[in-house]
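Checklist before submission:
- one chain only
- standard amino acids only
- sequence pasted in full

Submission:
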Amino acid sequence: MRRLAALGGADPADVFTAVTRLLGLDYDIGLAEFESHGLPVRFVEDQTAAAARHFGSTPVYTGIQIWDIPVSDIRPAVDAALSGGASGLFFYCYGWASVEALEEVGRITESLRR
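Returned file contents:
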């Protein structure tokens, strides 16, 4: 957002607001919160549900980032994807993920098998 704003000499927070509105991301979040925490976990559920509606009977597999996020955020993202109607999951950026994140993915996938 900051680079995009710099191109036109705009306020980065205003550009962030405009982009989120343009993309239909109806979240009460400002640029500072986005930069420090990313989008809310509800984004995962909303986007998964939208894909499931759009693609009908075609399976939807939701990607869950496991790098550069707190390990405690992985399970809520998985739960959000499943609540949104995901047919399955895949985890990405595992090459850069911490051992703790990989262990959490192992615990989650094991719990889903039961």
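Reviewer check: The chain has a mean pLDDT of 93.
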